[in-house]
Amino acid sequence: MQHIARKRFGQNFLQDKGIITAIINAANIKETDTVIEIGPGLGALTMPLLQRVNHLHVIEIDKDIIEYLRKLPNQNQIDIHDGDVLRFDFNSIAGKKKIIGNLPYNISTPLLFKLSDYVDNIIDMHFMLQKEVVERICALPNSKDYGRLSVILQYFFDMEKIIDVPPAAFEPAPKVDSAVVRMIPDVGRIGIVDDINEFSRLLTKAFAMRRKTLRNNLKGIVSDEEMAQVGIDANLRPEDINPQNYVLLSNLLHEKTQNKG
Ligand code: SAM
Predict the structure, then answer these.
(1) Does residue 209 contact residue 216 with C-beta atoms inside 8 Å?
(2) What are the phi and psi torsion angles at 184 (to 5°)?
(3) Percent of the chain with pLDDT over 70
(4) Closest residue (by CA) to atom 12 of ligand 1?
(5) Cβ neighbours of residue 12 under 8 Å, at least 6 residues apart?
(6) H or E stretch covering 157
(7) Using CA atoms, how far apart are residues 119 and 232, in angstroms rounded to an integer?
(8) What is the pLDDT of residues 212-240, one digit of tens each?
């Protein structure tokens, strides 16, 4: 089909057969798995997926592409969900799911946050993302890439970069490098937070100014003594604190607010 790539939908279509095969192999899909592909586009991943799995769900926003997908010969094998993935209820599909996609980069961060709400019903996810985002979400403490996004997503998922992908693998070529990440739900790995919203708010404040100390960023919220109670030195910068300590600090704050109420 003749299709002019739409920038507003982050359309960069995968062309490189080697990369496509590497993603499909990494996802390790069995015939009976419940698989959802986000943003099937013109089918670069969809067609090989249909060879591996009995049934495939796809979520696509572009009306022209949906029309094209509805004409594919494999209709009995595909459920096409027409609309914005950011509004999609992943629980509307029964069972534990494997999710895969060459994601539209412009919505990748809100989408990853949204998917965190569904961890209990996800087996794993394999996504093509902007390489910079993959490096940020997988980053460990004491590195320039480590930040709020790393800590929040590492709370929910065990993550690993699988392959780097150059712009030439797509048509049109994006301006940035890409990478594929594997994300496996693993809540509890760095502890359990009592209140996820409080954890998120704490991280926003803690990382508000990266060059400042934690004492500075959390002034009026938590004292040096309280930080010391959970093993945090208030003189350190937010990027020097490991995810486990942020969980402990969040729970201490939660307990404090509960006691006040
Ligand atoms: N999977 C195809 C490939 O690899 O060639 C296309 C990938 S392209 C980077 C992203 C796809 O996501 C496009 O088909 C685009 O129309 C679709 N898309 C963009 N925003 C979306 C949204 N909010 N909800 C659902 N699909 C979206």
Answers:
(1) yes
(2) -115, 120
(3) 100
(4) 39
(5) 5, 102, 170, 171, 172, 173, 174
(6) strand 157-165
(7) 29
(8) 999 999 999 999 999 999 999 999 999 99
Return the amino acid letter for 70. Answer: R
Domains of the chain (ranges; CATH) run 7-185 (3.40.50.150), 196-260 (1.10.8.100)
Q: What pTM value is reported for the model?
A: 0.96
Residue with tokens 């590492």, as numbered in its chain: 154
Do you know the residue count of the chain? 261
Amino acid (1-letter code) at residue 35: V
Q: Which residue has the tokens 């919220």?
A: 221
Q: How far is the CA of 241 from the centre of ligand 1 (A)?
A: 36
> How much is the pLDDT for 260?
77
pLDDT digits (tens, 9 = 90+) for 131-186: 999 999 999 999 999 999 999 999 999 999 999 999 999 999 999 999 999 999 99
- Best residue for ligand 1 mutational test, from 4, 6, 9, 23 (most atoms within 8 Å of Cβ): 9
| Amino acid, res. 108 | S
Cα–Cα distances in Å, from 238 out to 144, 149, 222?
11, 13, 14
Q: How far apart are alpha carbons 45 and 213 in whole angstroms?
A: 45
Tell me the Cα Rg of the chain: 20
